Amino acid sequence: MSSAPAPQSDAESGATTPDGDAPTAGDDSPEGESDAAPATASNAALIILGVFGGVYALESIGWIIGGLRLQQYAEFLVAPLAYQVSLWLAVLTPLIWFVTVLLLTRGGRSWVRIVLLAAGAVLVLPWPFIMVGAIGQ
Q1: Phi and psi at residue 112, in whole multiples of 5°?
Q2: pLDDT, tens digit, 9 for 90 and up, residues 51-101
Q3: Distances (CA, A) of 121 to 10, 27, 115, 130
Q4: CA gap 30, 109 in Å, rounded
Q5: CA–CA separation, 80 vs 72, rounded Å?
Q6: pTM, rounded to two decimals
Q7: C-alpha–C-alpha distance, residues 90 and 66, integer Å
């Protein structure tokens, strides 16, 4: 009675990987993955992200207050439905900008993310709130 031969490992059989190297015992990871840990943000970068997150949250609140203060005057200019849609798009704009910058600069440099967040903080200022104010005239 003959027994089946024991299976040989790749290292014993002389098999090579596609790049010509002999596989090692711990070489089970797929191509392109490295053993290095993913890069994490520094403490300063996390604090800056938190500050910008707060700024964008305050800008959204400013858009709500300013937009609702102008609602009585906007009835003469645009349809109420159009005003409501544009108001809520304006309220969501700071959040959309913040999330978009975070997603698009995920693997990039921190200074690019900070510059884009600073530019967005200026671009999405709640002008109705700034011009009319919370209390108004």
Answers
A1: -65, -45
A2: 999 999 999 999 998 888 888 888 888 998 999 999 999 999 999 999 999
A3: 57, 47, 10, 14
A4: 26
A5: 10
A6: 0.65
A7: 11
